[in-house]
Amino acid sequence: MADDGESLESWLNKATNPSNRQEDWEYIMGFCDQINKELEGPQISVRLLVHKIQSPQEWEAMQALTVLEACMKNCGRRFHNEVGKFKFLNELIKVVSPKVSSKTT
């Protein structure tokens, strides 16, 4: 199964490479296609996307958001179910409100 995760990760790394001059739709759509092919594609891809979206490199994070949007349009119900889970949503909240992740009461 590690093979599958690596191929998804490889597509995403190419789609969000900080040295890209613009969005690379070949890799973005390749990532979407790979998600749809793999049984665990939606679960694995959402974990990978969260990591990229939280990148301290702004361009990498922005490309990851573009990839997320493409996945929402092209990956169907299984992907939507993963994105709708609290775990994913909480990770996105950390991006827009860093204070949430640093407060421990």
From TrEMBL:
Transmembrane segments: none annotated. GO terms for cellular component: trans-Golgi network. Residues 15-105 form the VHS domain. GO terms for biological process: Golgi to plasma membrane transport; intracellular protein transport; protein localization to cell surface. GO terms for molecular function: phosphatidylinositol binding; small GTPase binding; ubiquitin binding. It comes from the Eukaryota. InterPro entries: ENTH_VHS, GGA1-3, VHS_dom. It holds the Pfam family VHS. PANTHER family: ADP-RIBOSYLATION FACTOR-BINDING PROTEIN GGA3, GOLGI-LOCALIZED, GAMMA-ADAPTIN EAR CONTAINING, ARF BINDING PROTEIN. This is VHS domain-containing protein. It comes from Kryptolebias marmoratus (Mangrove killifish).
